[in-house]
Amino acid sequence: MVKPIIFGGSGGRVLAVKIAKLTGFELGEVVVKSFPDGETYIRFMNDVEGRDVILVNSIHHKPNDILVELLFEIETLKDLGAKRVIGVIPYFAYARQDTRFNPGEVVSFEIVARMLERAGLDEIYTVDLHLHRVRDISEIFKIPAYNLTAVRDLVRYVSKHYKLEKPLIIGPDEEAEQWAKIAAETLGVDYDVLEKKRISAEEVVIEARTVNVRGRDVIIVDDIISTGGTMAEAVKALKSLGARSIIATCTHALLVGEALYRILRAGAVDIVASDTIPSPVSYVSVAPIIANALMRKVGKE
Ligand code: R5P
User: Which of 133, 134, 200, 223 to mutate to test the pocket of ligand 1 (most atoms within 8 A of CB)?
Assistant: First the structure.
């Protein structure tokens, strides 16, 4: 059997190298450039005919550019004769717009999923996909789709590197309960969630109903830190309730603007994220969980 080949797009270059090392799959080279007018130029430097191709690309920071890049890449790989195109899209943007909140709105999550499938994607692996109203990844994709989690590794990292006494896991809102639960099970501790009301894209209000955090070391677990508003407000609420120390964790560190500053200034001891999106706090790599998943499925067929 010919070994699969891995390409890292502009949102997944480093991760692609790490995954190639762990799996032993060949690392290919894809050139991605912008023309002076902003159009995208892409060229694959390896022969992909008859091979399984793994394309690593997180849709972050310039989500629309990376989305166009992904569509061009998938369709071209198929055109060049790839047997299957397997997308590793660790951060899947647009998942939060999973319904029509107001009349006339675009339901972007659904549309992005359809676009990738229509371009020819055969399989998708992602990490801590923002599943809220859509409960399971199989409800959004028609192709085989795998939603991995970085939460176990994130909280193991925190418990290894910080002196915490029987920490309490907190999700900043109800949507985060799914990740808080995994974190609590991993460390064998309790969890709870706060209540969040979103006022605008940058502003949220967080309330802690019955949560008892007095004197406790708290690990907050969420999928995304974007502006940092949610995390900063959660930290403030927990501090005012008497938490002893607070560490903020997330899988996807978008860290828009002064997000890190906002969270640290609110009183968090530290912020720990994964490298689905490279950032100054991406201490935990998702390469091992992705490599394991790929080797279980792709490497065997
Ligand atoms: C939303 O429901 C997500 O799970 C995150 O809590 C949210 O995207 C974080 O955004 P921000 O950092 O801008 O508050």
Answer: 223
Ligand 1: which of 230, 254, 276 to mutate, most ligand atoms within 8 Å of CB?
Answer: 230
For residue 301, name the pLDDT band (cuts at 50, 70, 90): low
Place of tokens 């995994």: 182
Q: For 15-65, how does the pLDDT look when each residue is reduced to its tens digit (9 = 90+)?
A: 999 999 999 999 999 999 999 999 999 999 999 999 999 999 999 999 999
62 catalytic? Reply is no
CA of 225 to the centre of ligand 1 (A): 6
Q: Angle CA(178)–CA(183)–CA(189) in degrees, nearest 5?
A: 120
Cα–Cα distance list, 91 to 88, 171, 234, 242, 251 (Å)? 9, 19, 23, 34, 9
3-state secondary structure at position 81: coil
pTM of the model: 0.95
